[in-house]
Amino acid sequence: MKKAIFLMFLSLIFLVILPDQSHAAANQSKIILDGQEVTLPSGVQVTVINQHVMIPIRVVAENLKFNVDWDQKSQFVKIHQNSKIISLNVDQREAKVAEKPVLLDIAPQILNKSVVVPIRFVSEEMGLAVSWDNKDKIVYLTSSNNNSAPNEDSTPHSENNEKVTLKHINEINFLNNQLVVSMDGQVTPIISHLKDPNRIVFDLPNTTFGDLSESLDSGSMGKLDVRGQPNVSEVRYSLFNHDPDQVRIVIELKLAGVIEVNHEFIGDQLVIDLQDASDFESPIQAPSGGEQGRKIVVIDPGHGGSDPGTTSISNKHEKDFNLALSLKVQELLLKEPEIEVLMTRESDVYPTRTERVLFANKLNADVFVSIHGNSVLESPQANGTETHYYQRSSSKELANAIHKRLIKAMGLKDRGIKDNSFQVIRETNMAAVLLEVGFLSNTSDEKAMLSNTVQYKAAQAIVDGIKEYLSIR
User: Which of 207, 280, 337, 397 is the least buried, fewest Cβ under 10 Å from its Cβ?
Assistant: First the structure.
């Protein structure tokens, strides 16, 4: 395995098994990787059992990005990463790598309710040579190919070997099964589902902490207050790796079931929705279907409740604009005898995006329209109306029908129709669009958007666009 992976593994260990009195602890241990000492966090020790260096399974899982399956009854462990599969049994020296028997120097053991395995075995199977200086308590690790090409686990560099620009995290919040990470740029998260305990790990490459660094405990780890959250027991975050910097966020779950994870960037906020499959039908309930012969239209006022959305230049909440315009669209659609209109919310409440998607899909709706206001407070000159769809030709057709009318009704700059992967239009099964009616951060746009008269014009434009798409006169 490449040097960068093991640096990640050694740079921050979330769970360290301390040896009991029958085992020797290497309190002053050092780890040398390719001739350079790896700095371990304060208090982290190398656990030695009968002269064998051992690490807990959890360290393997969270830091080497393995998936680990643990059977308590049989005490069987399966560690797998892509096509690499390692099978172990507690107190049994025989293991299997890719279904081939391998005899371990020491059997996996349970210490302090955690399974520990020999670091030599795990490391060598991932391409690292290991040696142990017992006198000086030093572990020497040597990668087989320091200059190998980067993969998804290695350090990202540009072709001229210059480091990519670091992004900074300034705020992390968790509420209503939603993790929101405020950043000064966008990165693609690497998401892993791990077991024992059930948790979801989010790695943000080329990312470090900005203002949030003050909340880290002794410069290493921070935690969010998640008291009262029904599905989550802990949310912790840390600077998981240096050079390149990488932030890790771990969400520990109270539930053992399947959790759906969806993420998207809204501006410079990474928004991650978690949804327990057994709880998909709350808080909005979908009726069994529309009246025979009527087209079903779902109107989705974005954000709401605990999620205010963006803020206008006069400090008004986007969620209020979204609801006001959406209710006007509902009012007009209720007058259409061939259309049945349903709302994802009609008040200041917050259904998650996953719940909105499932609501529309369960209805087998014909049209889904999500209404939003845009904002870039750092660039108050940004203005105009834009319409988003995702890939489907039916969604593009709906976008065209609404957008041309909305531009005329709002009288704002035409920012065009865009193909974007927003969850509510990506995962809905019907023709779906997301409207960014204007920029609340722009003085002129905000004035038009908050005008009751202009809102009715915009609502009529949306309704007329929907009717054109549905071929309703």
Answer: 337
pLDDT of 247-284, one tens digit each?
889 888 887 666 777 788 777 788 888 776 444 444 45
Beta strands 46-49; 24-26: pairing state: antiparallel
> Which residue, among 183, 191, 240, 177, has the nearest Cα to 210 in the 3D structure?
183
For 49, phi then psi, to 5°, come to -125, 120
Least Cα distance to 434 among 360, 367, 371 occurs for 371
The full DSSP string for 391-444 is: S-HHHHHHHHHHHHHHHHHH---EEEEEE---HHHHS-SSEEEEEEEEETTSHH
Three-state DSSP at 327 gives helix
84-89/92-97 β-pairing = antiparallel
Beta bridge partner(s), residue 67: 80
Ranges of the chain with pLDDT below 50: 1-27, 40-44, 59-61, 63-64, 144-163, 218, 277-283, 288
Cα Rg of the chain, angstroms = 27
Q: DSSP states of 254-297 as a string?
A: S--S-EEEEEEEETTEEEEEEEEGGGTT-SS---S-PPTTPEEE
Pairing relation of β-strands 199-205 and 190-194? antiparallel
SS3 308: coil
Q: Report the alpha-carbon distance of residue 395 to residue 434 in Å, rounded.
A: 10
In 134-245, beta strands by DSSP E:
138-143, 167-175, 178-183, 190-194, 199-205, 207-209, 221-223, 232-241
Within 10 A of 459 (CB to CB), how many other CB atoms are there? Answer: 24
Closest CA to 117 of 127, 126, 107, 132: 107
Please report, to the nearest 10 degrees, the dihedral formed by the alpha carbons of residues 436, 426, 200, 7 taken in order: -80
Whole-angstrom distance, CA of residue 57 vs CA of residue 70: 10
Query: In the chain, helix, strand, coil percent, each to 5?
Result: 20, 40, 40
Residue type, 17: I
Quickly list DSSP for 332-376: HHTT-TTEEEEES-SSS----HHHHHHHHHHHT-SEEEEEEEE--
The two structure tokens encoding residue 101: 């028997």
Distance CA 42, CA 44 (A): 6
CA distance 463 to 469: 10
Dihedral of alpha carbons 147, 151, 154, 157, sign: positive
- pLDDT for 25 equals 42
